[in-house]
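A student in our group prepared the protein record below, which I am reviewing. What it holds is a sequence and that sequence's fold in token form. My question to you is simply how this chain folds and whether the tokens agree. Do not assume that whoever made the record got everything right. I have pasted the whole thing underneath without changing anything:
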Amino acid sequence: MQMSNLQNKRILLGITGGIAAYKSADLVRRLREQGVDVRVVMTAGAQRFVNPLTFQALSANPVHTELLDPEAEAGMGHIELARWADVVLIAPASANFIARLAHGLADDLLTTLCLATTAPIAIAPAMNQQMWQTEVTQENLDRLQKRSIHQFGPAKGGQACGETGFGRMLEPLEIVDELSTLFETGSLQDIKVLITAGPTREALDPVRYITNHSSGKMGYAVARAAAEAGADVTLVSGPVSLSTPPGVRRVDVISASEMATAVMEIVEDCQIFIAAAAVADFFCPHVPDQKIKKIGEDEMTITLKKTPDILASVAALPKSPFTVGFAAETEKLEEYAQDKRKRKSLNMIAANRVDDPALGFHVDENALHVFWEGGEKELPRAPKQKLARDLIELIAKKFSQQK
């Protein structure tokens, strides 16, 4: 099974009423083995089959059961849960729940979450074989399919009622396998993508340097999303404390000049270049061999020179790739981003505000405003991994149109 791409994903598991709910306990365990962060939502019916404490112990997170729970609303309310999830998975999905979802009801926490989320939704049906075959159930499933809701199973076999037929929930490992395919879009299949990420460090002496607040999280999320989309990804990274995403080649550099050299050696073979790194704008051309001592004068003067403009250099190549820049701004977001896009002849630019401490540097959420010639799109606040997948899909679409 190909399941490595589930690591660090956020799965909201909805459990509805049915004997198959006992399988969901093993499903949580299997998901956590793959490095998934699982949050569980249980309907009233599900709680009659399995105690919520079971899922709290297995997921290591509180279990959510009530739509209007004051304690939950004070922390992570239903909208926050909906925004948090990379995927909403309902397993088991009973005939009753499928009917309510198909008709857009929002009469409990789980149905409300399904209406509020922008994440993909998947169901793993589980019911009596006759309930499965009945015309109204099949009509409800057709409705869900038209709304791009994914369906895993059901399987055929013996059931708790003693009958045999379709309606058994897939086994937990089968569901995990199906779930992993949701992140493999194929939108950049076999496309060579070069991405830069993280900060650079420009030495002032052997122990001091100029840098910035970039953690590399956004760039690494973009690299992971590109790999999940089928791309052949090379990541040129400044110094960060992050693990290399699965399926990504990583080249480590320190300074802007090292990053420029690495990029120019690779980029001519690439079709897409995404410059997510926060490259230092200036460097010290004369770095002393010994540490500068803090003695004597109260002030000192350091002469700095501009670092190589990697993004502009790539965009100016005779056969330049589809070039995407990033713009981290504290004011006039659209004005400054559009100016950078035009000035450097970029195909696209993703801009974000970094004056909000809840977004941008060192945190796990961000929001982007993406611009291209004749168009723009806002990607609202979301976890960086989720935001990166939305950005990659947008890049893939515009790249395909240009081709």
Remarks:
- The CA atoms of residues 10 and 85 lie 5 Å apart.
